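Reader question, answered in our methods column.
A reader sent in the components of a multi-part assembly and asked whether the whole thing could be modeled at once rather than chain by chain. We filled in our standard form and ran it. Here is what they sent:
COMPLEX SIZE: two components
ENTRIES:
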Amino acid sequence: MTPFLAPLLGAAVPMPSPDPLGYPAAPAVMQALAYLTLTLHFLAMMFTVGGAMLVLVAYLRGDRPTQRFFSAALPLGFSYLVTFGIPPLLFVQVLYGQLFYTSSVLIGVFWILVVPLLIAAYGALYWHRFAREGHPHRWLAAMLAFAAMLCIAFIYVNNLTLLQTPDAWLAKYAAHPGGMTLNTAEPTHGPRYAFFMLHTLVVAGAALVLRGAHLRRWGHEDAGRSSARQGAIAMLIGLCGASAAAGGVLAAMPAGVRAFVFGNALPLGLLVAGAGLDVAAVGLGAIASRRSGLAAAYGAAVAVTGALACLVVLRDQVRGAYLEPYFSLSGVPVYAQWGMLAIFAASLAVGLALLIVLLCKIAPALAAGRRKTA
Amino acid sequence: MNYPVWNVSFLGSGLVVAIIAIIHVLISHIAVGGGIFIAVAEWWAGRQADGDRVRTFLHGFVKYFLIYTTVFGAMTGVGIWFAIGLANPEGTSLLIHQFVFAWATEWVTFIGELTVLYLYFYGWGVNSRRMQLLLAVLYAVIAWLSLFVINGILSFMLTPGGWTPENRDIAAGFFNPTFLPSLLGRTLAMLVLGGLFAMLLAARVEDGLKERIVALAARFVLPAAVAMPALAVWYWFALPEAAQTMWLDGATGVAGGRLEAVTRYSWLAVITGALIVIGTLAFAARPRAVTRAAALAMLLIAQLGVLGGEFFREMARKPYVVHGTLYSNGLWQAESKSPATLDAPYFEAARWEPPGIAPGSPAHGEWIYRLQCASCHTLDGYRALDTRTRAWTPAFAERFLRNLPQQGVMPPFHGDAADRAALAAWLISRHGTPVTAAEVGAAAPEEVTR
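And here is the structure of the entire assembly that came back:
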């Protein structure tokens, strides 16, 4: 056994050893990268899941413009939700690998089921995108994609709650070595899942508000106002539901973890800031639905992104509190890979610069096409 | 032993990885080769009198290419990651921790590929021709760079070169002995597959244009397919000596014909490669005869070739996940060199057996199987132990388990005589004649003294 692991092992919990290769950079570096990319992932995920929900509502209402908007945007949203999901998954495996692999194996059947569900959701969104507008089964494709995404999120919540509750592991493995089990009995599981799914309405609603603001600027006053109004309503419903679910999460937490959240400046500050930014986002969305102009709509988008960033950091703080009896990031040695980090940073800078240049050259022409067909 | 082992009945976790991987490898190779085809075809369109017809074909091509490579290619790529984490957490953790910034750089190429492809597809009819050509070339370059990165990590698993867990020398591990032949070989395979994919989509193009597109695609397939054997030979000579020996030794495997498998898969790759050359020559000679069914059949042959090549690589690596460092069942080679560790009672090191297992009981044997064998073997499906142990006697079983590494593809048994006896008794008892661990233990010395 690797010597630095001994103090990490709980007496009755089969805690695997962290990787003997240690961390390739200080945990703070990996955490910062994880926070940044997870925020982007949540943004794309909530836009796509919430958008799928809103497109189904649009089918019920016979709202063709909203159907058209999400039909074109959702495959792109899905592409980026998966792509932005890669680095957080990478960094969680670096920081908490021994916990993450274990929880994944324990629910192995469901965890691998994510793969066909991803294919089903993505395929359905593309089919929805390219099927002719009046196709009678188009709404079914949207429904399939939405259901598949709900299932994926459900499995993720199972894995990530199981990751931070190691005391449940051994019994689960003894009963289900094939991984045919979930973690639904964990008290925060239900409200946590509800929170994430309801909050998707806030993000997708903000997207509709932004769309509405742009439509009005392009001279499509009625369509713009309708879009922004729908978006503002979705944001409000999402915020109410997510707030109730967040209360449920806090109530269901172990007392010690709850005390950590309310008794420490950082988690409490993040909680208050996140909630405040969400409320501000909904308020700005409401303003944008009544007045023309882009400022309030962009303000709503920025505020909701800020709220997600607070959520991401708070979530990691809470995970640390759950794992405190078993594992601490500071107990793992760091063997820094500065050269590789520099190569990554350089490739990221070059890649982003290239994409920004291309977008600046191409996006105006693409937007002009959108403006004509709006 | 560090991690719980995912026990997948009948298929086994390794086959779950393999099924996802062979689908992904085909599509990901098409994603790069097809990207190069798009760039060349964009340039070629500019030199044709009916360039707009070619570009219309290309727009349709890219629509299918986009859906196919993102929905099935990208998602199965994520799927491999999920599956290897389940099948071999220890090995996945090693690859992640050693190469995290290489993976992160790979992610940058994903973002680039995706965004440039979208700009190319949605920019059709909006962007200038020059911009479309630039985007196509950029996509091809970025996609190939993603191969460059992943190839370093994949080839590291088979030939880690000068890397060791102690020196953690990333450059030595990344630019390892099979890096270059593998990179060039895969690049050629990508050109072949990109050309075959183009033929599939050209099958429905009207006559006149169809012949020219098939001819262009054949120019991708034939030179690359003909050059492949040279790369394969280079690759073979860069393999670890143990893998070469395994391949050369012939079909004398004890536990299920291991050497037949590695030989079979390499021959599958060779035969499918030859079939592709013959088929493409026929297509080039009679382009009008290219139908969707015929082109699809060629892609299916290519899928079999990919299966052969990838399984060969996997088999050549046995019994390791990272050659010479980490065994497939999560045992580190360094630990296996220490008799004090290797021969100690298994449950002293293992963490995932339920509490209260009686020594020598069937549960003892079963949990040794679950934690030490199930990462590679099922009981009655893929690499079935029931088949392999059908003729076992207690004495043979004990001796076999004590000498597992002599098989060439098996890691050493981790545990003491009581663990071996419990596992042997449990496996033999599954055939209907109950045997106790004590009986196996008693038979062992008798066999040795005989």
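What stands out: Chain B touches chain A through 67 residues (CB under 8 Å). Confidence is low (pLDDT under 50) at residues 251-259 of chain B.
Send us your own complexes using the same form.
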